[in-house]
Amino acid sequence: ARDAAELDKCVQRRRKYLWSSGNKSPTYAQQSPVTPSSSVTPSPTPPFLPFSPSEIVDGKVVEVKEYPKDTPDHEIRFVGGVFVVDSPMMGEYRADVSCGEFYQDLRRTMKAIGTASVNSTATKRLMLLEAKFKMYLLLNEEKEYLAQKINP
């Protein structure tokens, strides 16, 4: 019962990170769709490279001495130990949770799904789904074979 309550809390926590109707989600419909008749052009080079070869020494990334520069399309700032990148495409969306709160939620969720009862329930559920799929294959073997012959 306690594990079920923890899983319910995980579902409630998940709702914090979903887009709601009040938030404007970034849509890609604003971009022009690619059609077969349109020509493919190579993408422009980025205004800066996040890791230049001089910043990688012996397979390890050396600490960057200066921050990335703002571009016309993005605003980059350093807030609470995290780089925040704002873009006009994002609209007015802002995350409602802080970095610390996110990691607390992640820790609580990992603790909830790591319990033995949740693992055994998930394993039993997967075994049931596998048995249902095998039963489907046994019952519809001829239909599946004919479908494979029709669509090579």
Structure characteristics:
152 residues; mainly alpha; two-stranded antiparallel ribbon; two-stranded antiparallel sheet; 41% helix; AMPD; Metal_Hydrolase; AMP deaminase activity
Question: What can you tell me about this protein's structure?
Answer:
Residues 21-52 are annotated as: Disordered. The relative contact order is 0.12. The longest helix is centred in the C-terminal third of the chain and has 24 residues, at 116-139. By secondary structure, the chain is mainly α. The chain has helices at residues 2-14, 99-113, 116-139, 141-150, and strands spanning 56-57, 60-61, 75-79, 82-86. Among the domains are: 1-17 and 69-114, no CATH class; 116-152. It has a two-stranded antiparallel ribbon with strand order 1-2. It has a two-stranded antiparallel ribbon with strand order 3-4. The chain is flat. Helix 1 (2-14) runs antiparallel to helix 2 (99-113). The protein is built from four helices and four strands.
